[in-house]
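Note to self: keep these together.
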Amino acid sequence: MPSKKSARTRERLLSAAGDVFVEKGFRDATVAEICARAGANIAAVNYYFGGKEALYQEAWRHCLAESLRAHPPDGGADPGAPPEERLRERLRALMGRIADPETKDFFISQMEIANPTGLLEEVMMRELIPMREKTLAMVRELLGPDADERQVVFCEACIISMCVHPLIMRRLGQKTPNARMPVIVDDLDAFADHVVRFALAGIHASRTPAKAS
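Structure:
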C-alpha cells in the first residue's frame, strides 16, 4: 500500500501534468517542467507512471474524474424524471463543466485533436462513450419510437455543438481579455436556459409524425 507521502507526490504530478498538457500539449510538454511544478524529483514520472506517455493518459483521466466530481454528468436529475428534465440538467452540467476555469480534461482533449498523438484515443473512448450513450438515449426517447438512428445522431450532434463551441470561445475570451472578440456568452445561466429551450424545440420539430393505424 503506498504511503501518504507517495500518494501526495503522485497527486501533485497528475495535477501539474494536467496544467502543462493544457498549456503545451503532449509533444511540447517536458517531464522536467512537470516535475518542477510538482516539486518532485525528475525520476518521479518513471517511478509512478512508467513514462511520459502513461502520465499523459493518467493525467487526462485524473482531470476528467475531478471535472465530473464537480459537475456530475446527470446534473443531479432524478433518474425517474421526464426526459426533458434529464436532458436539461445534463446540458447544464456539460456547459458548467466547460465554463469552469478548473476544468482541464476538455482542453487537453482539444490540444490532442489539434496535434494528435493517438495516446488518448483508447482511454477517451472508454470514458466518454458511455456518457455519450446516455445523451443519445435521452434524445432517442424524446424523438419517439419512430425516429431512426440518423435523426438521433444528428439531433445529439447539434445539441452538443451548441453547448461546446460558444463556451470554448467564452473561455478563450476570458484568457485574452484584450483581444477583440465579440461577446458570445455573458450570462451562463441565461445561455443554458436558451440552449435547453432551443434543443427541445429542435427535437420536437424533428419528431417523425406517428403513423396512422
